[in-house]
Amino acid sequence: MRKIRATYLAAATACIAILAAATLPAAAQEIQQLPVTPLNIGIHVIKAEVARSEEQREQGLMFRKKMGANEGMVFVFETPAGICMWMKNTLIPLSVAFIDAKGAILNVEEMKAQTLDSHCAQGAASYALEMNKGWFKDKNIKPGTVIQGLPQL
């Protein structure tokens, strides 16, 4: 009887694992490697992954468990707009800087992991740069600061 229960338990566990994997988006099952570009904010150099397509922007930093101290992700938007970001399936807390077409930071927002709260640009943004939570504050980087090296629109 114990052997039968163990077999049923193993089969049930396998089914649950298969169902869980099937309900995750494909991006969650394999984190897509994106191109990387260096960005400069004063003396600070950032190694930023570039999310340009809609699919890449939707995936963003979801399901990542960590990010390096000067690593981030820059989201590129073809048309300047009042864009908003949220943290669904994002496991690490982040800060986001919304940036205009000239590279100037419009505003910086702090975002909690795994929330659906909207964090929006305070103006027409062409870029959003996500970094580890507190990165901009720790470096005294504020609205008006210009970021150099942003990908072409």
DSSP strand (E) fraction? 25-35%
The CATH homologous superfamily corresponds to Protein of unknown function DUF192
Envelope shape: globular
Per DSSP, the total helix count is: 4
CATH topology: Jelly Rolls
CATH class: Mainly Beta
Number of domains: 1
Termini distance? 66 Å
| Poorly predicted runs of 5 or more residues | 1-24
Helix content: 10-25%
Q: Order of strands side by side in the largest beta sheet?
A: 1-2-3-8-5-6
Summarize model confidence as the mean pLDDT: 86
Question: How do the helices and strands line up, and which of them pair or pack?
Answer:
Layout: H1 2-23, H2 26-29, E1 36-41, E2 44-51, H3 54-59, E3 71-81, E4 84-85, E5 94-99, E6 105-111, E7 119-120, E8 125-132, H4 135-138
Parallel strand pairs: 2-3
Antiparallel strand pairs: 1-2, 3-8, 4-7, 5-6, 5-8
Protein name: DUF192 domain-containing protein
Keywords: Signal
InterPro entries: DUF192, Saro_0823-like_sf
Keywords:
signal, two-stranded antiparallel ribbon, disordered N terminus, Jelly Rolls, globular, 153 residues, 6-stranded mixed β-sheet, 8 strands, alpha+beta
Q: How would you sum up this structure, described in words?
A:
The chain has 153 residues and is an alpha+beta fold. The protein has a single domain, classed as Protein of unknown function DUF192 (Jelly Rolls). Helices cover 24% and strands 33% of the residues. The chain contains 4 helices and 8 strands, in the order ααββαββββββα. The strands form 2 sheets. The protein has a 6-stranded mixed beta sheet with strand order 1-2-3-8-5-6. Strands 4-7 form a two-stranded antiparallel sheet. α3 links the parallel β2 and β3. It is globular, with a radius of gyration of 19 Å.
